Amino acid sequence: MSKKPTTVQIKLGQASYDVVIGNQLMKDIGVWVTPLLNRKHTAIVMDTHVADLYRDELTATFNKHDIKHQTIVLQAGEQTKSFEQLQGLLNHLLESKIERHDTIIAFGGGVIGDICGFAASVLRRGVGIIHLPTTLLAQVDSAIGGKTGINTPHGKNLVGTFHQPKLVLADTDFLDTLGSRNLRAGYAEVVKYGALGNRSFFNWLENHGTTILSGNKAHLTEAVIESVRAKAQIIEQDVFESGSRQLLNLGHTFAHALETESGHNETLLHGEAVAIGIVLAFDLSVRLGYCPSSELARVKSHFASIGLPTRIREVLRPSWSVKALINHMQQDKKIVDGKLSFVLVRSIGDAFLCTDVRTGVLNSVLTDSFAESELEKAAQKSNV
Ligand code: GLY
Questions:
Q1: Same domain, 275 and 346
Q2: Which of 142, 162, 239 is the best mutation target for the ligand 1 pocket, counting ligand atoms within 8 Å of the beta carbon and taking the most?
Q3: What pTM was estimated for this model as a whole?
Q4: Is 196 helix (H, G, I), strand (E, B) or coil?
Q5: H or E segment at 17?
Q6: 125-136 residue pLDDT tens
Q7: Residue at 1 is within a domain
Q8: Does residue 136 lie within any of the structural domains?
Q9: Which domain holds residue 306?
Q10: Are residues 166 and 223 in the same domain?
Q11: Phi-psi group of 112: left, alpha or beta (phi > 0 → left; psi -120 to 50 → alpha; rest → beta)
Q12: Confidence band (pLDDT; 50, 70, 90) for 35?
């Protein structure tokens, strides 16, 4: 049954747009999209996975509304966020005769949203984009706020632009076909909003995390709406990330380093890296004396209770080293004058930016996360 959708407006002056959250939105996509198109001509970009599931249905709805469209299908997976794929996509869009005042549709998860956003921002010096996010991660985070980008061997999202969409349509029905691992990974970004700025949302997630991830649609939708509201508040204050928007990177300096070390592939999903990264950010905050250790324990135990990794050791490869991770962090976009800055916390719901973290303490946080836990050591002993 379709329920009335919820709209969260992102207020950015002339660049304002709506994020519409609800179910059964795709069947009426023509109704949502048509008023925003300069002419009834678009290109829809999706990945192979989304194409298998939804291409025919989506094409039918565009046909119903007489919107002429090309579909462009990219390979599913993080590897698609590359210079090579970006070039191919731009050529496809030009072949599809997308003009300066046209709008393209990004239909998929974070990878499709990021590469399409980048392509839209540079094609003919900027065309419009509408996001139709299909993963939890994209619905609560990457489709909102206009960040675009691709990865390079130097790190994740190091090349990109800011380019706000005209509309984000978050149809929670897409989450029904998302595998449980992907849903859990997206949930790490939901927890992030509670951990960085909304303690009561974190409390609510502690009580509802399990039901959210086991298919309770009402709770899941509520979690998406709260996350979008939290993100809206932050980006409205600082759209270009010169200040408070950096708080949205809680755990991400660690996460990006882990993803770079793992080669940006599906062996470590972004949200899994973010869960570990958030725990490491709390750990760093505890060791620097900013935060009580009981807060770290709560965050760790919530992630663990829903099956997300909390320590590097859980995802570790033999080739990884603390030194390599720190080197990756030194490529972080937030680096200023070569000084590493981290989003730290005073407690759950109270994050701040610390621009001067010493490598020594960072080294010990990472070393401990690489090492066997006390539990593992005890188990080893009892096996001897
Ligand atoms: N994903 C963090 C941001 O949009 O700023």
A1: yes
A2: 142
A3: 0.94
A4: helix
A5: strand 17-22
A6: 999 999 999 999
A7: no
A8: yes
A9: 191-377
A10: no
A11: alpha
A12: very high
